[in-house]
Write a structure and sequence with these properties.
The complex is a heterodimer of chains A (about 70) and B (about 250). Chain A has about 70 residues and is mainly beta. Chain A is built from one helix and five strands. Chain A has a five-stranded mixed β-sheet with strand order 2-1-5-3-4, with no helix packed on it. The chains are: A mainly beta (about 70), B alpha/beta (about 250). At the A-B interface, strand 3 and strand 5 of A face strand 4, helix 2 and helix 3 of B.
Protein backbone atom coordinates (compact mmCIF):
# COMPACT_ATOMS: atom_id res chain seq x y z
CA UNK A 1 0.00 0.00 0.00
CA UNK A 2 1.24 3.45 -0.93
CA UNK A 3 0.86 6.25 1.66
CA UNK A 4 1.97 9.86 1.85
CA UNK A 5 3.32 10.29 5.38
CA UNK A 6 4.46 13.78 6.39
CA UNK A 7 4.92 14.58 2.73
CA UNK A 8 6.97 11.43 1.98
CA UNK A 9 5.51 8.88 -0.41
CA UNK A 10 6.18 5.44 1.01
CA UNK A 11 5.27 1.83 0.39
CA UNK A 12 4.19 -0.13 3.46
CA UNK A 13 3.31 -3.80 3.79
CA UNK A 14 1.29 -5.50 6.51
CA UNK A 15 -0.17 -2.23 7.73
CA UNK A 16 -3.92 -1.87 8.00
CA UNK A 17 -4.62 0.83 10.55
CA UNK A 18 -3.06 4.07 11.77
CA UNK A 19 -2.04 2.19 14.91
CA UNK A 20 -0.19 -0.37 12.76
CA UNK A 21 1.58 2.41 10.87
CA UNK A 22 2.79 4.05 14.09
CA UNK A 23 4.15 0.70 15.25
CA UNK A 24 5.74 0.06 11.85
CA UNK A 25 7.53 3.44 12.06
CA UNK A 26 8.57 2.58 15.64
CA UNK A 27 6.91 5.74 16.93
CA UNK A 28 4.62 4.05 19.47
CA UNK A 29 4.70 5.64 22.91
CA UNK A 30 6.27 8.84 21.60
CA UNK A 31 3.19 11.03 21.74
CA UNK A 32 2.24 10.88 18.06
CA UNK A 33 -0.80 12.90 17.02
CA UNK A 34 -2.29 11.83 13.69
CA UNK A 35 -4.28 13.51 10.96
CA UNK A 36 -5.65 11.16 8.28
CA UNK A 37 -6.71 12.82 5.01
CA UNK A 38 -7.02 16.16 6.85
CA UNK A 39 -9.18 14.68 9.59
CA UNK A 40 -7.65 14.82 13.06
CA UNK A 41 -7.91 11.56 15.02
CA UNK A 42 -8.12 11.21 18.78
CA UNK A 43 -5.66 8.74 20.33
CA UNK A 44 -8.40 6.17 20.85
CA UNK A 45 -9.20 6.22 17.13
CA UNK A 46 -5.69 5.22 16.01
CA UNK A 47 -6.27 1.50 16.41
CA UNK A 48 -9.50 1.50 14.38
CA UNK A 49 -8.67 4.04 11.64
CA UNK A 50 -8.26 1.91 8.52
CA UNK A 51 -5.76 3.05 5.91
CA UNK A 52 -6.32 2.87 2.14
CA UNK A 53 -3.97 3.18 -0.79
CA UNK A 54 -3.03 6.83 -1.43
CA UNK A 55 -4.04 8.08 2.03
CA UNK A 56 -2.37 11.22 3.30
CA UNK A 57 -1.13 10.90 6.86
CA UNK A 58 0.34 13.65 9.01
CA UNK A 59 2.10 12.60 12.21
CA UNK A 60 2.97 15.44 14.58
CA UNK A 61 4.02 15.84 18.19
CA UNK A 62 4.95 18.44 20.78
CA UNK A 63 8.35 20.05 20.46
CA UNK A 64 10.04 22.84 22.37
CA UNK A 65 8.48 26.24 21.78
CA UNK A 66 7.52 29.43 23.51
CA UNK B 1 -3.56 32.64 42.80
CA UNK B 2 -3.62 32.89 39.02
CA UNK B 3 -6.93 31.66 37.56
CA UNK B 4 -7.17 30.94 33.85
CA UNK B 5 -10.48 29.40 32.82
CA UNK B 6 -10.96 26.38 35.07
CA UNK B 7 -7.27 26.19 35.96
CA UNK B 8 -5.62 27.61 39.09
CA UNK B 9 -1.91 28.22 39.56
CA UNK B 10 0.21 29.50 42.41
CA UNK B 11 3.17 30.34 40.14
CA UNK B 12 2.83 33.37 37.90
CA UNK B 13 5.64 32.34 35.58
CA UNK B 14 4.78 30.57 32.33
CA UNK B 15 7.86 29.05 30.75
CA UNK B 16 8.55 28.24 27.12
CA UNK B 17 10.47 25.10 26.22
CA UNK B 18 12.31 26.20 23.07
CA UNK B 19 16.02 26.40 22.39
CA UNK B 20 17.50 25.04 25.62
CA UNK B 21 21.07 23.75 25.25
CA UNK B 22 20.03 20.22 26.27
CA UNK B 23 17.33 18.23 28.08
CA UNK B 24 19.17 18.13 31.41
CA UNK B 25 19.63 21.90 31.63
CA UNK B 26 16.05 22.38 30.51
CA UNK B 27 14.64 20.01 33.09
CA UNK B 28 16.61 21.67 35.86
CA UNK B 29 15.66 25.18 34.70
CA UNK B 30 11.99 24.23 34.55
CA UNK B 31 12.27 22.74 38.00
CA UNK B 32 13.89 25.72 39.72
CA UNK B 33 11.64 28.22 37.93
CA UNK B 34 8.71 26.88 39.95
CA UNK B 35 6.52 27.18 36.86
CA UNK B 36 3.33 25.14 36.58
CA UNK B 37 2.65 25.94 32.91
CA UNK B 38 4.90 24.93 30.02
CA UNK B 39 4.44 26.02 26.44
CA UNK B 40 5.11 23.84 23.39
CA UNK B 41 4.90 23.96 19.63
CA UNK B 42 3.35 21.32 17.36
CA UNK B 43 5.52 20.02 14.55
CA UNK B 44 5.87 17.01 12.25
CA UNK B 45 7.59 13.99 13.74
CA UNK B 46 10.69 12.75 11.99
CA UNK B 47 9.25 9.45 10.75
CA UNK B 48 12.70 8.18 9.79
CA UNK B 49 14.14 8.55 13.27
CA UNK B 50 12.54 5.97 15.56
CA UNK B 51 15.02 6.71 18.33
CA UNK B 52 13.94 10.31 18.83
CA UNK B 53 13.23 11.00 22.48
CA UNK B 54 9.72 11.68 23.72
CA UNK B 55 10.03 15.35 24.55
CA UNK B 56 7.23 15.37 27.11
CA UNK B 57 8.62 12.34 28.90
CA UNK B 58 12.11 13.88 29.03
CA UNK B 59 10.65 16.94 30.70
CA UNK B 60 8.41 15.07 33.10
CA UNK B 61 5.62 17.07 31.47
CA UNK B 62 2.88 15.14 33.26
CA UNK B 63 3.65 17.32 36.31
CA UNK B 64 2.72 20.50 34.41
CA UNK B 65 -0.23 22.09 32.68
CA UNK B 66 0.58 22.15 28.98
CA UNK B 67 0.02 25.26 26.93
CA UNK B 68 0.65 24.39 23.28
CA UNK B 69 0.98 27.30 20.87
CA UNK B 70 -0.11 27.72 17.28
CA UNK B 71 3.29 29.08 16.21
CA UNK B 72 3.86 28.74 12.51
CA UNK B 73 0.28 29.73 11.68
CA UNK B 74 -0.18 32.70 9.36
CA UNK B 75 -3.98 32.54 9.21
CA UNK B 76 -6.80 31.82 11.63
CA UNK B 77 -7.55 28.55 9.84
CA UNK B 78 -3.97 27.33 10.23
CA UNK B 79 -4.03 28.27 13.91
CA UNK B 80 -7.30 26.39 14.46
CA UNK B 81 -5.88 23.27 12.81
CA UNK B 82 -2.76 23.35 14.99
CA UNK B 83 -4.90 23.91 18.10
CA UNK B 84 -7.04 20.89 17.24
CA UNK B 85 -3.95 18.75 16.63
CA UNK B 86 -2.64 19.79 20.04
CA UNK B 87 -5.95 18.93 21.71
CA UNK B 88 -5.97 15.52 19.99
CA UNK B 89 -2.98 14.64 22.18
CA UNK B 90 -5.57 14.32 24.95
CA UNK B 91 -3.19 16.19 27.25
CA UNK B 92 -4.53 19.74 27.29
CA UNK B 93 -7.43 22.08 26.65
CA UNK B 94 -5.53 25.37 26.76
CA UNK B 95 -4.15 26.97 23.62
CA UNK B 96 -1.86 29.93 23.07
CA UNK B 97 -3.19 31.52 19.90
CA UNK B 98 -0.20 32.79 17.96
CA UNK B 99 -0.76 34.00 14.41
CA UNK B 100 2.30 35.73 13.06
CA UNK B 101 1.71 38.39 10.44
CA UNK B 102 5.27 39.35 9.62
CA UNK B 103 8.30 37.10 9.71
CA UNK B 104 10.91 39.77 10.28
CA UNK B 105 9.35 41.25 13.42
CA UNK B 106 7.29 38.14 14.35
CA UNK B 107 4.52 40.53 15.34
CA UNK B 108 1.09 38.95 15.69
CA UNK B 109 -1.63 39.57 13.11
CA UNK B 110 -4.44 41.20 15.11
CA UNK B 111 -7.26 40.38 12.67
CA UNK B 112 -6.35 36.71 12.29
CA UNK B 113 -5.72 36.42 16.04
CA UNK B 114 -9.24 37.71 16.74
CA UNK B 115 -10.75 35.33 14.18
CA UNK B 116 -8.84 32.31 15.46
CA UNK B 117 -9.74 33.13 19.08
CA UNK B 118 -13.44 33.33 18.23
CA UNK B 119 -13.43 29.98 16.40
CA UNK B 120 -11.49 28.25 19.18
CA UNK B 121 -13.77 29.64 21.90
CA UNK B 122 -16.73 28.19 20.01
CA UNK B 123 -14.89 24.84 19.92
CA UNK B 124 -14.55 24.86 23.71
CA UNK B 125 -10.87 25.63 24.08
CA UNK B 126 -9.38 27.64 26.94
CA UNK B 127 -8.01 30.45 24.80
CA UNK B 128 -4.96 32.60 25.57
CA UNK B 129 -4.17 34.85 22.61
CA UNK B 130 -0.69 36.28 22.15
CA UNK B 131 -1.35 39.80 20.88
CA UNK B 132 0.33 43.12 20.36
CA UNK B 133 0.09 45.63 23.21
CA UNK B 134 -2.86 47.41 21.59
CA UNK B 135 -5.35 48.46 24.27
CA UNK B 136 -8.45 48.24 22.09
CA UNK B 137 -7.45 44.89 20.63
CA UNK B 138 -7.10 43.57 24.18
CA UNK B 139 -10.62 44.82 24.92
CA UNK B 140 -12.04 43.21 21.79
CA UNK B 141 -10.40 39.89 22.64
CA UNK B 142 -11.80 40.08 26.16
CA UNK B 143 -15.27 40.86 24.77
CA UNK B 144 -15.03 37.68 22.67
CA UNK B 145 -14.59 35.73 25.89
CA UNK B 146 -10.92 34.74 25.85
CA UNK B 147 -9.64 33.36 29.16
CA UNK B 148 -6.49 35.51 29.38
CA UNK B 149 -4.90 38.17 27.22
CA UNK B 150 -1.18 37.98 26.46
CA UNK B 151 0.21 41.28 25.18
CA UNK B 152 3.80 41.28 23.99
CA UNK B 153 6.38 43.36 25.83
CA UNK B 154 8.43 43.64 22.61
CA UNK B 155 9.14 41.35 19.63
CA UNK B 156 9.64 37.63 20.33
CA UNK B 157 13.17 36.75 21.39
CA UNK B 158 14.32 40.38 21.23
CA UNK B 159 15.02 40.80 24.94
CA UNK B 160 14.07 44.47 24.61
CA UNK B 161 11.76 44.36 27.63
CA UNK B 162 8.59 46.43 27.96
CA UNK B 163 8.65 49.03 25.22
CA UNK B 164 5.27 50.56 26.00
CA UNK B 165 4.58 50.34 29.73
CA UNK B 166 1.68 52.78 29.37
CA UNK B 167 -0.17 50.39 27.07
CA UNK B 168 0.53 47.40 29.29
CA UNK B 169 -0.79 49.27 32.34
CA UNK B 170 -3.89 50.44 30.43
CA UNK B 171 -4.54 46.85 29.33
CA UNK B 172 -4.17 45.71 32.95
CA UNK B 173 -6.45 48.47 34.18
CA UNK B 174 -9.33 47.63 31.85
CA UNK B 175 -9.05 43.83 31.99
CA UNK B 176 -11.25 41.60 34.10
CA UNK B 177 -9.36 38.51 32.90
CA UNK B 178 -5.70 37.68 33.59
CA UNK B 179 -3.12 39.70 31.67
CA UNK B 180 0.07 37.76 30.96
CA UNK B 181 2.96 39.70 29.47
CA UNK B 182 4.36 37.45 26.76
CA UNK B 183 7.45 37.84 24.57
CA UNK B 184 10.37 40.24 24.60
CA UNK B 185 11.35 39.89 28.25
CA UNK B 186 15.15 40.00 28.53
CA UNK B 187 16.07 40.30 32.18
CA UNK B 188 14.66 39.78 35.68
CA UNK B 189 14.15 43.56 35.86
CA UNK B 190 11.83 43.37 32.82
CA UNK B 191 9.82 40.57 34.41
CA UNK B 192 9.56 42.40 37.73
CA UNK B 193 8.50 45.56 35.89
CA UNK B 194 5.70 43.68 34.12
CA UNK B 195 4.44 42.43 37.46
CA UNK B 196 4.74 45.88 39.05
CA UNK B 197 2.56 47.23 36.24
CA UNK B 198 -0.08 44.82 37.52
CA UNK B 199 0.30 41.93 35.09
CA UNK B 200 -1.06 38.64 36.45
CA UNK B 201 1.80 36.65 34.98
CA UNK B 202 4.75 36.60 32.61
CA UNK B 203 5.45 34.14 29.80
CA UNK B 204 9.05 33.93 28.74
CA UNK B 205 11.38 31.52 27.00
CA UNK B 206 14.52 32.91 25.35
CA UNK B 207 15.39 35.04 28.40
CA UNK B 208 15.99 31.76 30.25
CA UNK B 209 16.95 29.28 27.54
CA UNK B 210 19.38 31.73 25.93
CA UNK B 211 21.00 32.92 29.16
CA UNK B 212 24.61 31.93 29.83
CA UNK B 213 23.34 29.94 32.81
CA UNK B 214 19.70 29.03 32.09
CA UNK B 215 19.18 27.34 35.47
CA UNK B 216 20.35 30.38 37.43
CA UNK B 217 18.28 32.68 35.22
CA UNK B 218 15.21 30.51 35.78
CA UNK B 219 15.62 31.05 39.51
CA UNK B 220 16.18 34.79 38.98
CA UNK B 221 12.98 35.05 36.94
CA UNK B 222 11.00 33.18 39.57
CA UNK B 223 12.20 35.60 42.27
CA UNK B 224 11.74 38.68 40.06
CA UNK B 225 8.16 37.75 39.29
CA UNK B 226 7.41 37.11 42.95
CA UNK B 227 9.08 40.39 43.96
CA UNK B 228 7.28 42.37 41.26
CA UNK B 229 3.94 40.91 42.28
CA UNK B 230 4.53 41.68 45.96
CA UNK B 231 5.57 45.21 45.03
CA UNK B 232 2.39 45.69 43.02
CA UNK B 233 0.23 44.38 45.84
CA UNK B 234 2.08 46.53 48.39
CA UNK B 235 1.45 49.71 46.39
CA UNK B 236 4.50 51.75 45.53
CA UNK B 237 5.03 55.38 46.62
CA UNK B 238 4.17 58.09 44.15
CA UNK B 239 7.04 59.61 42.18
CA UNK B 240 7.92 63.22 43.15
CA UNK B 241 10.23 65.72 41.54
CA UNK B 242 12.00 66.73 44.78
CA UNK B 243 13.38 65.02 47.86
CA UNK B 244 11.48 64.14 51.00
CA UNK B 245 13.71 63.50 54.02
CA UNK B 246 13.51 60.05 55.58
CA UNK B 247 15.09 61.21 58.86
CA UNK B 248 13.40 63.73 61.22
CA UNK B 249 14.33 67.35 60.57
CA UNK B 250 13.83 68.28 64.25
CA UNK B 251 16.01 67.40 67.25
CA UNK B 252 19.36 67.82 65.53
CA UNK B 253 22.23 67.87 68.02
CA UNK B 254 24.36 70.84 67.09
Amino acid sequence: MKLVVNGNTMEVAGVQTVGDLIKELKLAGKGAIVELNEEILSKSEHAEAVLANGDKVEIVHFVGGG
Amino acid sequence: MLKIGNHEFSSRLLLGTGKFPNFDVQKEAVNVSGTEILTFAVRRMNIFEPDQPNFLEKLDASKYTLLPNTAGAKTAEEAVRIAKLAKASGLCDMIKVEVIGDFKTLLPDPVETLRASEILLNEGFTVLPYASDDVLLAKKLEDLGVHAIMPGASPIGSGLGIINPLNISLIVEQATIPVIVDAGIGSPADAAFAMELGADGVLLNTAVSGAEDPVKMAKAMKLAIEAGRLGFEAGRIPKKRYATASSPLEGMSV
